[in-house]
Design a protein that fits this description.
The complex is a heterodimer of chains A (about 425) and B (about 100).
Chain A (H helix, E strand, L loop, with lengths): L4 H12 L5 H20 L4 H8 L2 H19 L3 H12 L4 H42 L13 H45 L12 E6 L5 E15 L7 E7 L8 E8 L2 E8 L15 E6 L4 E16 L4 E11 L2 E4 L8 E9 L2 E5 L4 E7 L5 E4 L2 E3 L2 E3 L9 E10 L2 E5 L1
Parallel strand pairs in A: 2-5, 2-6, 2-7, 7-8, 7-9, 8-10, 9-11, 10-16, 11-17, 12-16, 13-17
Antiparallel strand pairs in A: 1-3, 3-6, 4-5, 12-15, 14-15
Chain B lengths: L2 H18 L2 E2 H9 L9 H10 L3 E6 L7 E6 L1 H26 L1
Antiparallel strand pairs in B: 1-3, 2-3
The chains are: A alpha/beta (about 425), B alpha+beta (about 100).
Chain lengths: ~425, ~100
């Protein structure tokens, strides 16, 4: 971490230079320099100021993405949009699938359409010439696949006109896609930033509260299309599960059911299909806030197709854990876990995966790595399996399988 | 508090402080961070964005203690935006509180 003004500004400058204009860079740096100078005058240390400012890398990423998307919006060029795409990609691996792939597909499609138009445009006049010469009886080549020269003239003229239309169409399509791409990236920056406050509506905020009654165990199954899932701290002891949605202008498609099996309550949530918040609408991504009772054992089974999952489960008593995230970042924090032993299975498609496990427990973690680094700390490697350094009798056992597609894995015993 | 929450309300906090008086960056950051725990560095990019969107303007003013400081002032447009967002926020809070009080 940066400890002085000098370091902070240097990092910020490094991350920004070449990405924003000279003037803007000076302007940004002077903002932070001013911040330091006033802070110092008030008697705060540079280290303290750095700490409260937060990571300069985050600041730079945010500025870059916003800047480049705006630039691309104002001055249309292939270069600008490409830079904007790259900057948006830099905000998270999530975007690899959701920005790069559609973008490349569209570009390829546009090139094909444009080339086809061009070929027609060139071929038309040439064929026209051939047909005319044929009509005049001086056919240079023995091509004609048409039955009469007159027909040939019509076909070649038609081809040339169609060529003009296709080329014009391609240009319009390119413009349209350009605007769409800009809007798409803005939406993306929004999602990564976590949306903004401008959303509320009578329908928007929905909270589902399920009472505990006399249940002594819980199975919680959640299936979400897209959005961010985070774990909240507070819960009343009489409540089994509380799920809150932070809204969006449209009512939320959320189905849920509660069934019982003996003393176990089985709660199922299903909702937020992938396009409930389409990117072309200005609607921010949905986020879910989950609160779960800490007094009874919980079997948690969560499947999110796309988005971010951030769960701190250290306070729960788990009987099993299954988490599957299609695309997006997944962070699972089990630090301080003191509940019972359990098996866990964590699958992540595309995106980084961060798992913190409690070192007081007896851990056995098997990693099935896809593409990306695995960074393991505090555990002993035995091939692809990682175990606790010492066996601790009486401590809960956690046996975990991690399956990762594309993206880095960070596993840390804390 | 939930980090998403905080990031989301940052914009309205900035607008609302500026609606009361013009501020220089450090002052604004302080004003907000003494009530909400945020990473302060992200306020500056937000201020730039608000400036680009025409909600605030800036001017330099001499200070007794040192070099001139960059002050931020709300534009007419910014004032309108602040007003709208504030109303929305109040309604939102009222309904959440109603829910919480049950």
């Amino acid at each position: 971490m940066e400890k002085s003004e000098q370091e902070y500004l240097t990092t910020l400058k490094d991350r920004l230079s070449g990405h924003v204009s000279r003037e803007d860079l000076d302007d940004i740096l002077s903002d932070y320099a001013e911040h330091f100078s006033i802070g110092r005058a008030e008697g705060r240390s540079e280290e303290d100021l750095c700490r409260s400012l937060g990571s300069p890398g985050d600041v730079a990423r945010e500025i870059r993405a916003t800047y480049l998307v705006e630039k691309a919006e104002q001055a249309r060029s292939a270069e600008n949009i490409w830079h904007a795409v790259i900057a948006t990609l830099g905000l998270g691996l999530f975007n690899l699938v959701f920005v790069l792939l559609p973008f490349l597909l569209l570009v390829v499609l546009l090139i094909i359409v444009f080339m086809a138009g061009l070929v027609m445009l060139v071929a038309g006049p040439i064929l026209f010439l051939v047909a005319v010469m044929q009509l005049a009886g001086v056919s240079p080549v023995a091509v004609p696949w048409w039955s009469s020269p007159i027909l040939g003239i019509f076909i070649s003229l038609g081809l040339a006109i169609a060529g003009v239309i296709v080329v014009i169409l391609a240009i319009h399509l390119a413009r349209f896609f350009y605007r769409l791409a800009i809007r798409y990236m803005k939406w993306n920056i929004h999602v990564i930033r976590g949306g903004d406050a401008r959303k509320d509506d009578e329908h928007a905020d929905r909270t589902v509260v399920i009472p505990r009654d006399d249940a002594t165990a819980l199975t919680l199954q959640m299936r979400f299309g897209a959005g961010e899932i985070a774990m909240g701290e507070e819960i009343e002891s009489g409540t089994l599960v509380r799920l809150m949605n932070d809204g969006g202008p449209t009512p939320l498609p959320l189905d849920w059911s509660v069934t019982r099996s003996g003393m176990r309550k089985i709660v199922r949530f299903r909702g937020g299909h992938p396009f409930s918040s389409p990117w072309w609408s200005e609607e921010p991504a949905r986020s879910w806030d989950l609160h779960v009772n800490r007094e009874i054992p919980v079997a948690l089974d969560l499947w999110n197709k796309a988005g971010r999952i951030r769960l701190s489960l250290g306070n729960l008593d788990l009987s099993s854990l299954r988490i599957k995230n299609g695309a997006g970042e997944t962070c699972i924090d089990l630090a301080g876990y003191r509940g019972g032993s359990f098996d866990a299975e964590i699958k992540n498609g595309v995106g980084s995966l961060v798992i913190r496990v409690p070192k007081e427990c007896n851990l056995q973690v098997r990693i099935y790595r896809g593409i990306g680094d695995a960074n393991v700390r505090g555990l002993i490697a035995e091939g692809d399996t990682y175990v606790s350094p010492v066996d601790q009798p009486g401590a809960p056992r956690i046996s975990c399988q991690i399956k990762q597609g594309v993206g880095s894995i960070s596993l840390e015993a804390v | 508090m939930n980090i998403q929450f905080k990031k989301g309300v940052l914009e309205i906090c900035v607008l609302s402080v500026l609606a009361q008086r013009d501020c220089y960056g450090y002052e604004l950051v302080n004003e907000i961070s003494k009530r909400i725990d945020i990473s302060e560095g992200t306020i500056y990019p937000l201020l730039r964005r608000l400036k680009d969107e025409g909600y605030v303007t800036t001017y330099l003013q001499e200070s007794a203690e040192g070099p001139p400081r960059k002050y931020y002032r709300l534009t007419e447009r910014g004032r309108k935006e602040e007003h709208e967002q504030k109303e929305e926020w109040m309604r939102f809070c009222a309904s959440v509180n109603a829910l919480l009080d049950g």
